[in-house]
Each structure stands twice: as C-alpha cells, then as structure tokens.
Amino acid sequence: MLNKAKLSGADLSHDDLSGADLTQSDLRQADLSGANLQGAHLWRSNLSRANFNDANLGGCTLGRTNMSNSVLKGADLKGSSIAFSNLSYADLEGADLSGTDLSQTDLSWANLSGANLRGTRLIGANLDMADLTGADLQGATIINTKLNSTSLSQAVWGITIIANCDLTRVIGLDDIRHAGPSMISLDTLSRSKGQIPATFLVGAGVPPQLIAAHDAYSTTATAYTRVLLLGSGSDTEFAAKLRASLAEAQVPSWVIAADDEAALQSGAVNLDHAVYYDRLVLLCTAESLENPITSRYFATLVNGQGPSAGFSTGEPLIALAADDIFYQREDRLCSGLRDGVVVDFRGWNDEARYNEALSALVQAFTTPRDSAPF
Fold this sequence. Notes:
Blueprint: E1 121-123, E2 141-143, E3 156-157, E4 161-163, E5 177-178, E6 183-184, H1 186-191, H2 198-203, H3 208-214, E7 227-231, H4 236-248, E8 253-257, H5 261-266, E9 279-284, H6 286-290, H7 292-302, E10 318-321, H8 325-328, H9 332-338, E11 341-344, H10 351-366
Parallel strand pairs: 1-2, 2-4, 3-5, 4-6, 7-8, 7-9, 9-10, 10-11
Helix pairs in contact: 7-9
Protein name: Pentapeptide repeat family protein
Organism: hydrothermal vent metagenome
Pfam families: Pentapeptide
C-alpha cells in the first residue's frame, strides 16, 4: 500500500508499479519515465511537473488528479479514467489516449500534437489554447467543450461526435483530414454563428441543405441556452412556474430534484448529466437549504467538486434566493452562494416581484457571452 505516499522528486524511472495503490500521493516532479503503472490507482494525487515519458499508464485511475505541467510524451494511457483532472500545460505529444475518459478535464495549453485520441470522451473538457495538430480524433465524443484558439490543423476525424460546441475560434478547421463522416450537431451550428468553414462541413458529411442554412446563423445574435433547475422535491410549484415562464421566454429548461433518491438509484435521474446543460440554476428555497441531501449536493457544486465544476462554458452557478433564510444563514454553503451570482426571488408568489426577478434571470441567460479564454 503506497496511498498518500510522499515521493516528491523521487526517481522511479522504469520501476514496476503496476496495480499499485498511490491514491492521494505526492509525486510532484518525480521521474516516472518508462515506468509500468498499468492499472495503478492515482486518484486525487499530485503529479504536477512529473516525468512520465514513455510510461505505461494503461487502465490507470487518474480522476481528480493534478498533472499540470507534467511531461507524458509517448506515454500509454489507453483506457485510463482521467475525468475531473488538471492537465493544463501538460506535454502529451504522441501519447496514446485512446478510449480514455477526459470528461471535465482541464487540458488548456496542453500539447496533444500527434496524440491518439480515438474513442476518447471529451465531455465538458477545457481545450482552450491546446495544440491538437495531427491528433487522431476518430470516434471521439466532444460535447460542451471549450475550444477557444484550439489548433486542430491536420487532425484526423471520422465518426467523431461534436455537440453543443462553439467552433468560431478553432484554428485549422479547414485543414482537418476526414477519414469518414462525423456527427455535427445542430446546436454546434447554432453556437458557431455561421462561422464554420464550408470545407469542414462538407468533409464531415453534413448535408448540403444544412450547409446552406448554416449561413443564416451568422445573423442570429440571440444566445440559445439550455438550463437545469436543481432543487428539492418540495420545490415542485416554484420549479413548474419557473419552467413555464422560461419556456415563454424561449429558454428551454429541465428540473431535477436532488433528493429524489428513488429516481437517482433507478437511473431515471443522473446528477452527473449536469455537464450537458449550459447553465445550472439552484433553487435556494427554505426546503432545499434545510434538506440535508439537497444542501450537501449544493455544497459540492459551490466547492467545485460536482458536475458543474467542469462547465465548459465557464459560466457560474446561479442561485435563486427564494426565502430569507438564504441571506440569514452564515454557514459555508449560503456564504459561498452569496459570493456568486444571485437572483432575488423572495416573495415570488407576488406576480409583480416574480416578473421582475424573472426578467433579471432571463437577462443573465440571453446576454451574449464572450467566448475568449481570457
């Protein structure tokens, strides 16, 4: 058992650590070049600035791991779980990341040139300023991912799925090599505002009628935002009223009760799916804040540990203060929520107050967003 090991700066090059439990270990600046870490558990470990050149990390558990500024040239990471991790500024040139889960992982400024990303899940990931020149993205799933100034020149696509992404700032779209058709969602066309090169769309197999219609999006300034309303089972009336009002304002929304244990256990509701929405709104009623299940889930979001932590749009949570308790409580949850974006819905049963608060909420959704990474 090596969990919580203190191995900062250690020389472990070419060592056999296959299957080792290194959970929550400190391996900063360690030399693991050529090491065998196949199937190892490195969850929540600090691997920043470590050297993994040509290491075998196949099937590793690397969730919530700090690998920023690490070097992984030619490393084998096939089938590894790297979700919710920090790989910013990492050097992954020529690495094999096929079949890996990189959901909600920070890959900003990373070097992924020539990397094998076949079948990789890039859901809610951050690829701002990343270099994917010549990378193989066949079969990859790219959903709700940040792609500001991302280089895709000479990347290989085929049976690649891309949904709810803004491609307006991607570099090299017209240089992508298409090994087969890809699935380009309508919401990607909408968010890209008619600025996707026709050569890319043709190469991906998009029908000519949609390519022709794509130009119309360039004159559409209104943002299309999909909203998740999250509260407790006691918030049914408030949630239903909000959802109906948002629908009238052409803002589609859905509702999840975080304390609906039966739905969660059956799989009918999955809180991890929050990443597929553009904005997450917390219904901060007295019932939700006093409910141990709902308040605990709210706390994970505020602390950056829940699904919204990796929102690719970079948009903050929105708290709807529906009761005085939201402003009266001084615990970490309410204090943290008050430090963020708050819309005051107290007295929402009064139609005038409700409409005023609703207007402020809709304005927050429909204000054009700056997609620049800085």
